[in-house]
Structure formats: structure tokens, C-alpha cells
Amino acid sequence: MTVEAKESVLRSKFRFNPNGSTVEVSVLCSNPLMAAAEAVRLIFHRWLQENDFKNIDRHFGIMEMTSRKAESYAKAAPTLENRAVESPELREARKNLRKAEKNLGKLLLDPTFPSLFD
What separation in angstroms does the CA of 83 have from each of 71, 86, 90, 112? Predict the structure, then answer.
């Protein structure tokens, strides 16, 4: 990208050559230490991102709110169903219980295991 610029505190009127055509834009930059080419590069990258968001919103509605209506939980509560949800600790305890029961069953079927009734 070729950039021609007048250096000033509020750099303005940049000309650059993207893809063979000259475009003149005004860019404000309050950082006097930033090079003109860097300011133009950053503003155009930002412009590309904003243009992408605009197109995504236009075609896919990512910024669309489905409703501005708010409803209190107390009002919605009668229509909601209670359902039991196992905690990770309960699932782990049940897994350990099944494993212990399986091991106990193997021991009880083992002919070398001493019987309690002998």
C-alpha cells in the first residue's frame, strides 16, 4: 500500500493506492508519534471489520433483539416444570456404588471365597 500524507497533529487527507486505484480519505489521529501509513492501515482494518459486522447483521440478524419484553420469574413460575438434576457428586457416588456391587457379586460367585454360612 502506497501512502502519501501531510503530517500534522490531526493527520488529514491521506492518499493511498490499494489495488491500483487511488483513494483519498480523511483520517483523524491524535497520536503524534504514529506514522501516517500506520494510521491509515489501522483505520482501514477497522473499517473492514465494521463493514463485515454490518453485512452479518443485515443478512443474518446477529444484532437483532427478539423481544424487549421482560417478564418476572414469579409470573413465569407456574408454567415452568421442576425437574431433578443429578449433581456431579451424586453421579460419581452412583458410579462407585455400581462398581462396588459388581465387585461384590464377583466375590460371592467366587468358589474360593469363604462362605458366611459354613
Answer: 21, 10, 16, 46
